[in-house]
Amino acid sequence: MVxxxxxxxxxxxxxxxxxxxxxxxxxxxxxxxxxxxxxxIDHRAFPLELFNREPTPKFIVDPEIMAIAARLPELGWRMWxxxxxxxxxxxxxxxxxxxxxxxxxxGGLRGSDELDEALRRxxxxxxxxxxxxxxxxxxxxxxxxxDAKALAGALARGSGRAEVYEQWRTAEGPQIQGSPHxxxxxxxxxxxxxxxxxxxxxxxxxxxxxxxxxSAAWADELLDxxxxxx
Length: 230
Prior knowledge:
By secondary structure, the chain is an alpha+beta fold. The protein has one domain (9-229): 3-Layer(aba) Sandwich (Glutaredoxin), CATH 3.40.30. It is built from 9 helices and 6 strands; from the N terminus they run E-H-E-H-H-H-H-H-H-H-E-E-E-E-H. The protein has helices spanning 19-34, 48-52, 58-71, 92-100, 108-124, 133-141, 148-156, 161-171, 217-229; strands at 9-14, 40-45, 181-184, 188-191, 195-199, 209-214. A hairpin with a 3-residue loop joins strand 3 (181-184) and strand 4 (188-191). Helix 4 (92-100) packs across helix 8. Mean pLDDT is 95; it is low at 1-5.
């Protein structure tokens, strides 16, 4: 599951609409930047709405965002403050754009990861409707290593869609446990690393998430491992 490149690569299965995945990606990127270590992230889609046959409910995402952001205010997340009608009902267009951006003529893994990070920031910090094609392309325009015009053409041809559905089928297997699940050289595999949390009950019956602990040490350990392997 690891794409071989000249730089150490971590494969991450996730959904943009999953706060836990967004937390893990932030932690990993922040550690790599702090250490000035090269890192590529190969994004694979774990499309929650296809698994669950419904949009990821706002009443689940909101309390997860609140629990994480209250403990880690440096993330800069905030509760959705856009119009109710503009709340993203799907993340599939964004997931497809991230896959399409992997094309070396559009951005490669570097551009794809840049777009993933920008889409997550747009949702979690800026309350933008990342379900909308035009919004995705506006965000892509701000990504240094993404050719937004080429991405627009690729999306118009349906690029990224087949990859998302293929990855969904792979993620239905037992090896991928959820969003996020990270894989790297040396046999590294971790589902939702660093987070210790529980739900007080079913979110459909008023239960709330309780983040008991979060340790970012896993990111340094992973970077140590993959750079040693390299």
